[in-house]
Amino acid sequence: MEAQKVDMFIMTNAKYFESHQLPAIRDRLLEIDDSKWAIIQTLQFKDPTISLIVSLLGGQLGIDRFLIGDTGLGIGKLLTCGGLGIWAIVDWFLIMGATREKNVDKLRQVI
User: Please, are residues 40 and 30 in contact by the beta-carbon 8 Å criterion?
Assistant: First the structure.
């Protein structure tokens, strides 16, 4: 794929991925053919900041985990009231990284 397209994709979507993963994503995007570009452009990534806000407001109910697609962990948090509050507090620090990992997984499925 063209380097300009890849660089534009990286610039517009960098907040959805961990910074240490960006060079590997860029290299992988440069290797693929142009036929997958339309699919890549239509991907909807979860915003880590929104996940953090939801975790702060509804983390004890597991809403943050349901939002990023971790249904099992969401049910666990819902049934335990966020691990009696401890799990909810821990997730305030982990949810942004988990969201970015889910975004990378979604991109890897396409490429």
Answer: no
**Cα atoms found within 13 Å of the Cα of residue 35, Cβ hemisphere only:** 1
- Identify the domain containing residue 51 by its residue range: 3-110
- What pLDDT is attached to residue 5? 86
b/e sequence 34-69, b meaning 16+ C-beta within 10 Å: eeebeebeeeebbbbeebbebbeebbbbbbbbbbbe
Q: pTM for the full model?
A: 0.84
- How many domains does the chain fold into? 1
Residues 20-34 pLDDT 10s: 999 998 999 888 888
- CB-based contacts of 20, cutoff 8 Å, min separation 6: none
pLDDT tens across 50-80, in order?
999 999 998 889 899 999 998 998 899 999 9
Taken in order 5, 105, 18, 86, the sign of the CA dihedral is positive
